[in-house]
Amino acid sequence: MSSGKKPKIVVFGGINMNLITLSSRFPTPGETVKGSYFYTASGGKGANQAVAACKMGSDVKLVGRVGDDVFGSELITDLNTHGVDTDGISVDTANSSGVAVIILNDQRENQILATYGANANCDNREVLIGDAALMNADALMLQMETPYEISLELAKIAKKSGVNVIWDPAPPIDFPDEVYKYIDVLTPNQSEALNLTGIEVNDITSAKSAAHILHDKGARIAIIKLGDQGAYFVTHDQEGHVPSYDLPAVNTVAAGDAFGGAFTVTFCEGKSVEQSIRYGTAAGALAITKRGVQDSMPSRKYVEELVASR
Q1: 107 belongs to a structural domain
Q2: Is 257 annotated in the active site?
Q3: Residue 299 backbone phi and psi in degrees, to 5
């Protein structure tokens, strides 16, 4: 699409309440470690990416489920505050809202225990809602916190409609080879790339090898996210490394989601793959400088300023 039109993005994915605690280190099995700070933050990979895309200037509709509980109502309220269209979110009376218990250590590394609740109960209802939402959409964003089978059905619908499918394979699961042909852009991080390719990605060279494998499997564009090393991408006629931005890390939990939102919006606006990755890496770098999850998603103004600084 041309850059003069506001992109329309549909996100199908997880909606979770994050329970976040800070500690000097991670506990070992059977050990109690004293935490230094605790807070809650609305999250879930689908919800985070929806907020990230909204803050980059896109119209975004989120499809998914929350529980009929205090977390569910708070999750929807927070999404509305950020401008996300929540009409595609159902309230599941039989299951709790998704919850992620997150421990951050002094190195700002994280350990996450996720209980997906209502997210895992998504079914054909979400297919029907997503099918209607995809009319005239520019992109469908998917992750792996909701049933894979539902994501695949929506990806097939999107491909038939000429809608870009941007798939973040997180958290990692077994990914059947049949799915790759429905993916326009695949964006694993290092651990997810290992799960998908068997290659331990720890530098640009290994990222290049993993990206080529994913492209050869059928993904039209493969992007390996490398954290503070940036990203490596492969398309049918281009490949390369895009460096990240060196900013102080406070919380790395949602950096990948910030990347996904910024990349998708700018890609749908017609920017090149490489330039869209620059926006994604800038958004990810900005996201780690703030506490919180959805609140850490940067606005477009700051992303553009960081991109322009290089």
Answers
A1: no
A2: yes
A3: -75, 160
